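LOG
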Amino acid sequence: MRFIGAIFLAISLGCWSAIQAKLWQRAKILVLVGGTFLGLTGIISLARGLTVGGTEIIWIWTVYFLAAGAGCFILIMRHRWHRKQSMDPGRTSVLTPSRVFFGVQTSVVGIFGAMMLLLPSVAQEQFWPWKVATPTLQTFGALFLATCLATGWAFFQRDPFRIIVLLPLDATFPSLALLAVALGWNTIATESPSTLVTGVWVGLYSFVAGGSTILYFMIRRRASAPSQRPH
């Protein structure tokens, strides 16, 4: 439940970041992430309700997830997605570290997310560090795939100021996940398939949390540099 709480807190931060971004071209990736995660989670919840018989709570959450996901995609359709990227050569100093960081993250979360969503029993036995219900693990997989879309998009951006809105969300969730892991360490130590599995996940979350934080401050420093120059 702490892990799910971390997801909801991260979503809340994502909504706040989208509002703060003001410009649609900077907020749109958060809308895509939210729509993908909520839509996939709604489908998972719907399948659960249809196959095992849904309770009132399951149907309420199903309607919420599907409606919220549809709302995100309606926003994308209304405001449209494409626009030519800025070619300002002064905004390219952090492209190399950002491309490496997002490239690694996209590859890892894409593979794990697909496995968790499509082959949850294999994921549970082989590389998930504690026991959860199948729909819950598939929900985690939906989050990973939504993250994969976001980081894949960020990998191709030429203007680092277009990805800065994504970084607080990318740093917050793994940080909260690490906190949840620390609080539930006894459970993980007992249920994890191996010490290696636990170490890989802790390392992955630490890499994402630390990398996003460092990249965020690199871009912020770059943004504030001109204002610090003497006139």
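LOG (cont.) second protein
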Amino acid sequence: MSPRPAAPKGARTAVSPTRHTGRRCALAGALALAALLVGGCAARSAPRVVFLGDGVFGSPTTQEAEAYCRNFGAPIRFIDADTGRAPAGPLRYRCD
């Protein structure tokens, strides 16, 4: 195949559609990263809850247990506590 002839001086040549692809990808990546960062800062962290079966849940702290039951608007009932107070440390509970 013979080489392509040069365009006449002053003539406009077609611009390749892939000319700015690298910039577009970098911009899209930066926007996606910014959206994840803003979304991660705005969202609350989910409470750590383990489903133990038969409606019994487990959480490492009282605050996380209360936060989980608050999602449903249900009162919390601690299973391990003989007194009315919440036990210290890991606990089992129900959201009644």
